[in-house]
């Protein structure tokens, strides 16, 4: 079966985001950008399914600026076979992204579409579920284990109370949680090889999708800051403090 | 405005996250509830008692027995013909279902709102809570998930909603429930605990994590949480994780032990009323948000603290 994976170029997870002083957003100029960590897990899972012989081809899709090509090359270096960049300089909302990905899915007819459960920039946690709804497919969100068995897949999900397993009809959408796998690093020879793997360039207009935003960002501000408190020198002092704060009697 | 709130329930009980969502919905207008499940007449009756609730729509069918999004979302989307906003708690259940409802309605969801500014304007955290965005929606209908710690809980008693049965939208036969491994604990749930003691990778092993933290949690009647590092290392199960992509908590007191304080962890607990940090590294970022910090060896400090409390 063919696998589709979606990858997003986002601020590197080690960088502390800074809000722009004019309140229009977060400053991304000269900030290190990387593949969304949850998407790395999606790429890795696809590669493992291919290594197991379950998957035959892996196609990575990214929607974003020209620089998202780098993100796609990373996916190719890890082991994806080919890539599609839907290029736009607009900041597309999850609904528009899901509509574009649904069009790609209709063209490519994958058995499974694997995405990160959320991007660490807008923290929306929507695209996978929306994609499944638009395609009328099943969904296995927040996956910590994926096992394909014939025409269905069993997905173990990380839920608030622990773990839950569901059986999903294929084709399906899976969104990854942190414990699904540990993504590999691309080796230097594979990074070199990735440069010659096919990468198709498209635009949202090619798919006839209206990407007009539904939400307007009125302003972006820094959250109220906590003041660092006091340091105490001993457990007795700590308990004393806790008593003053009314935490313990 | 007429709102429809997804009631999250488990074992025949309405879960607390629903109550905060009701409060958010009441800021928009009339509050109606959706109870979908199997054998949920008791849940519906309890839900009707939540203060401020108008109508309770109940769909009782095998198809809703395990809250599968593939079945619940079309039901909710159908009911949205008569409602203006759909709200779900930002729990794993709500996050699984709400975007599916939004896509069926061709609406862009507003995730994890912190406040209702007006009928179409809300605030929500982005970048792991390092920025707060005010967003205005132009969609005719709204689909929203609600961060439970940002709203007071509506009173569970005092309401007198009317219960109305809704026909099942049927089993879409896309998915089925196989099983669940739910953590059983006598301790308070993280999202509603008054006190949380949370451990990081510094504990070194699952045995030490539990041997040291459990007695302290027992003494304080606290819930037990963990950093992502501790969960990844296998010291604690996934549902202990506090942070950007785990649970968001805001207890009266959060005790972070052996947790350095990565921004992803801070995103999940920095709204706690009092933060106490115990860490051997005096430069750990956790001390920048802690009200009270103690630098030292947790293997000495935690047993001493447990004993002296």
Write a structural description.
The complex is a heterodimer of chains A (249) and B (309). Chain A has 249 residues and is an alpha/beta fold. Chain A has a single domain (2-220), classed as Rossmann fold. Chain A has helices at 37-51, 68-78, 94-108, 127-135, 188-194, 235-244, and strands at 2-6, 9-11, 33-35, 57-64, 82-87, 112-116, 138-149, 152-159, 162-169, 172-176, 199-202, 215-221, 230-232. In chain A, a hairpin with a 2-residue loop joins β8 and β9 (162-169). The longest helix of chain A is centred in the N-terminal third of the chain and has 15 residues, at 37-51. Chain B has 309 residues and is an alpha/beta fold. Helix content of chain B is 27%, strand content 30%. In chain B, β8 (115-118) and β9 form a beta hairpin. The chains are: A alpha/beta (249), B alpha/beta (309). Chains A and B meet through α3, α4, β7, β8 and β9 of A and α3, α4, β7, β9 and β10 of B.
* Largest β sheet strand count, sense and barrel closure of chain A: 9 strands, mixed
Stretches with pLDDT under 50, minimum 5 residues of chain A = none
> How are the strands of the largest sheet of chain A arranged?
9-8-7-10-6-1-4-5-11
Biggest sheet layout of chain B: 7 strands, parallel
Number of domains of chain A: 1
CATH topology of chain A: Rossmann fold
Using the coordinates above, name the CATH class of chain A: Alpha Beta
CATH superfamily placement of the largest domain in chain B: HUPs
Outline of chain A:
globular
Stretches with pLDDT under 50, minimum 5 residues of chain B: none
Q: Give average pLDDT of chain B, whole number.
A: 96
CATH topology-level name of the largest domain in chain B: Rossmann fold
N/C terminus separation of chain A? 63 Å
Order of helices and strands of chain B: EEEHEHEHEHEEEEEEEEHEHEHEEH
Q: Give the H and E element order of chain A.
A: EEEHEHEHEHEEEEHEEEH
Separation of the first and last Cα atoms of chain B: 51 Å
Question: Total helix count of chain A?
Answer: 6
Level of helix content of chain B? 25-40%
């Amino acid at each position: 079966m063919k696998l589709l994976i979606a990858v997003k170029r986002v601020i590197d997870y080690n960088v502390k985001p800074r809000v722009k002083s004019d309140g229009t957003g977060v400053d991304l100029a000269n900030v290190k950008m990387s593949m969304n960590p949850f998407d790395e897990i999606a790429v890795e899972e696809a590669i493992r399914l291919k290594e197991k012989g379950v998957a035959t081809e892996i196609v990575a899709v990214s929607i974003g600026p020209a620089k998202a090509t780098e993100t796609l090359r990373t996916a190719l270096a890890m082991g994806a076979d080919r890539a599609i960049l839907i290029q736009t300089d607009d900041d597309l909302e999850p609904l528009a992204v899901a509509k574009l990905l649904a069009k790609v899915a209709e063209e490519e007819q994958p058995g499974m579409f694997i995405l990160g459960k959320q991007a660490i920039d807008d923290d929306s946690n929507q695209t996978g579920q929306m994609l499944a709804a638009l395609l009328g497919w099943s969904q296995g969100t927040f996956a910590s284990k994926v096992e394909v068995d014939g025409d269905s897949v069993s997905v173990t999900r990380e839920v608030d109370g622990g773990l839950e397993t569901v059986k999903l009809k294929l084709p399906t959408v899976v969104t990854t949680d942190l414990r699904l796998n540990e993504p590999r690093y691309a080796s230097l020879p594979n990074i070199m090889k990735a440069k010659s793997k096919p990468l198709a360039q498209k635009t949202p207009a090619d798919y006839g999708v209206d990407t007009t935003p539904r939400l307007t960002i009125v302003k972006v501000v820094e959250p109220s800051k906590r003041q660092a408190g006091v340091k105490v020198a001993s457990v007795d002092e700590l308990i004393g403090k806790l008593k003053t704060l009314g935490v313990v009697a | 405005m007429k709102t429809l709130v997804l009631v999250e329930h488990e074992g025949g009980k309405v879960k607390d996250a629903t109550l905060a969502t009701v409060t958010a919905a009441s800021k928009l207008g009339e509050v109606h509830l959706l109870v979908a499940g199997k054998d949920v007449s008791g849940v519906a009756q309890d839900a009707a008692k939540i203060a401020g609730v108008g109508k309770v729509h109940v769909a009782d069918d095998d198809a809703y027995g395990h809250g599968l999004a593939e079945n619940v979302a079309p039901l909710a989307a159908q009911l949205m013909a008569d409602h203006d906003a759909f709200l779900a708690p930002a729990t794993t259940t709500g996050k699984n279902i709400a975007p599916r409802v939004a896509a069926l309605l061709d609406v862009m969801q507003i995730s994890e709102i912190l406040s209702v500014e007006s009928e179409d304007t809300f605030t929500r955290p982005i970048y792991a809570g390092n920025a707060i965005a005010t967003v205005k929606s132009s969609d005719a209908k709204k689909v929203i998930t609600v961060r439970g710690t940002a709203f007071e809980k509506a009173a569970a008693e005092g309401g007198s909603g009317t219960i109305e049965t809704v026909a099942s939208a049927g089993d879409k036969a896309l998915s089925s429930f196989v099983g669940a491994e739910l953590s059983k604990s006598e301790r308070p749930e993280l999202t509603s605990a008054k006190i949380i003691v949370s451990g990081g990778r510094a504990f070194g092993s699952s045995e030490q994590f539990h041997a040291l933290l459990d007695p302290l949690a027992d003494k304080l009647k606290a819930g037990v949480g963990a950093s992502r590092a501790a969960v990844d290392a296998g010291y604690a199960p996934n549902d202990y994780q506090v942070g950007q992509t785990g649970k968001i908590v805001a207890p009266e007191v959060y005790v972070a032990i052996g947790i350095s304080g990565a921004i992803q962890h801070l995103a999940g607990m920095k709204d706690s009323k009092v933060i106490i940090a115990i860490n051997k590294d005096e430069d750990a970022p956790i001390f920048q948000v802690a009200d009270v910090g103690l630098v030292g060896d947790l293997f000495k400090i935690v047993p001493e603290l447990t004993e002296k409390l």
